[in-house]
Every structure is written in C-alpha cells, then in structure tokens.
Specification:
mainly alpha
C-alpha cells in the first residue's frame, strides 16, 4: 500500500470521528440547556403568586354531564 493512501485513510477516519464527536457534543449541550430551561421555569412558576392563583382557580373546567 502506498504511504499517501494510508495517510489519506487515517486523515479521513480522524475527520469522521471529529465530526461525530462534535455532533454528539452539540446534542448533549442542547439537551442540558433544555433541562436547565425547564427546571428554571418550574422553579419560577412555583413562587409566582399569579401562576399559583390560576392553578387553584381554573378558568376552564370540565363540563358537567347531563343525563
């Protein structure tokens, strides 16, 4: 095998590994960002009095069944 071919294969494999690694890193980063955002939203909603009021006093309720 020619040395140029071996070098080209090694460079191609390393480039592929780098691309897959970057993609995995980006997906994990976004997943963590979504988790942080949802946790912050839940934390804020717990202490916001207006949110608690509307949860306790539902504006839209389930209609009663008439027989």
């Amino acid at each position: 095998m020619n040395l140029d071919v071996i070098f080209a294969v090694v460079v191609t494999v390393l480039a592929g590994v780098a691309v897959v690694g970057a993609l995995v890193f980006a997906v994990v980063w976004e997943w963590c960002a979504i988790k942080r955002t949802l946790a912050e939203h839940r934390r804020r909603a717990r202490f916001d009095p207006s949110v608690r009021y509307w949860r306790e006093h539902a504006v839209v309720s389930t209609p009663e069944r008439r027989s």
